[in-house]
Write a structure and sequence with these properties.
Helix content is 24%, strand content 40%. By secondary structure, it is an alpha+beta fold.
């Protein structure tokens, strides 16, 4: 009887474990589908003349300002959250692809004096812009770039290969002559650590011909050798770069990267 009870209990545990693993796999599949949909799909909204909607997390912590999207001639604006007065268009914000307010992700500093906005200009390219808010006006701030701080040797290789490809063209414009090509990229503020310090996530994808870039990237990127898409027989490498960095606002609307670390791709 005891043996039978143990077997029944073991069978029950196995069924539970299988159910748990199935749920985990199903959850992972749903997450991958949702992520793919977010990266590929566009967010659209048909605004009426004079209609404005608050962007994702667009209200400032002090409730004085809001980042809004709208109007029949689509734009992204700084608005007085109380009077609903438009204070100015944020022209540097990328807005070539999406019109839905949820596609414009806003990250306010805790003191409401700076704001970062992430949005897409193209399907696989997202840009992060930062503004300083003073006297009810938005002033553009130079955004930090992590890649050349994290992997300066790769940036040198990128510059070298670009110049070589340009020289080989000999004045003939053709897409057939290239040695390095960027296919995707984006950055976004993940969180503010203080009124002047913040964490940025940055990723990019490249294809490189002939030169194996692994040594120049360290642990910051996954490098995969792939089959060439032509008959040249030249080696081709696919690069997926991901990093996070702590950054700091500087005087004169500048910013700087203080430190970076690799971000591993979750399996």
């Amino acid at each position: 009887m005891l043996s039978r009870a143990v077997c029944e209990a073991s069978a029950t545990v196995n069924l539970l474990e299988r159910g748990t693993w199935f749920a985990m796999l199903l959850g992972a599949a749903v997450l991958l589908i949702a992520t793919a949909a977010r990266l590929s799909a566009t967010s659209e909204y048909d605004y009426k003349p004079g209609e404005y909607l608050v962007a994702k997390d667009g209200l400032s912590p002090d409730k004085q300002f809001a980042i809004v999207c709208g109007d029949d001639k689509f734009g992204v604006y700084l608005m007085d959250a109380k009077t609903k007065e438009r204070l100015g268009e944020l022209e540097e914000v990328a807005k070539g692809l999406d019109t839905g307010p949820d596609a414009y992700r806003v990250h306010w500093s805790p003191d409401s004096k700076h704001v970062g906005i992430c949005s897409r200009e193209e399907r696989h390219y997202a840009s992060n812009v930062i503004y300083r808010i003073e006297n009810r006006q938005a002033h553009f701030v130079e955004s930090p770039e992590l890649r050349c701080h994290a992997v300066p040797d790769f940036c040198q290789l990128e510059d070298k290969l670009t110049k070589e490809a340009d020289a080989e063209k000999n004045g003939v414009e053709t897409d057939a002559i290239w040695k390095i090509e960027q296919n995707a990229g984006g950055s976004e503020i993940k969180k503010w650590l203080s009124p002047t310090r913040f964490i940025v996530f940055e990723e990019s994808e490249f294809k490189v011909k002939q030169d194996d870039p692994s040594a120049s990237l360290g642990t910051y990127a996954k490098v995969e050798k792939v089959k060439p898409n032509d008959d040249s027989g030249v080696d081709m490498y696919r690069i997926s770069f991901k990093a996070e960095g702590e950054c700091e606002l500087m005087p004169d609307d500048k910013s700087r990267v203080m430190s970076t670390h690799p971000v591993k791709t979750k399996k």
